[in-house]
Input
Amino acid sequence: MDPNLAIALSVFIITYALLASERVSRTIVVALASLVLLMTGILNLGEAFNFVNWETIGLLLGMFIIVVVLSDSGFFTYLALILTNKLAYDSKKIFIFFP
Output
């Protein structure tokens, strides 16, 4: 077995196990796994950047900005008040519609 493949496979298994256990922050686990792959030379920095889907990162960033602006403006509170009013302030219905 190729040594690089063995290292990559062991990093993958350890990362997967740590993510499944949820004992360590996902960000830290992924950052350390990426660092190990970069330091061992299995991936170079150019390859690592090519694996990033920048369109998805941009979409998520835009969504986060929209949610912050809507939250700061009180949109979600307003929406909750309208929904509560439409449900006639019935606690059973409110419990179902508000997760």
About this structure: Residues 60 and 66 are 10 Å apart (CA to CA). The radius of gyration is 22 Å. The chain has two domains: 1-52, 53-99. The longest helix spans residues 54-73.
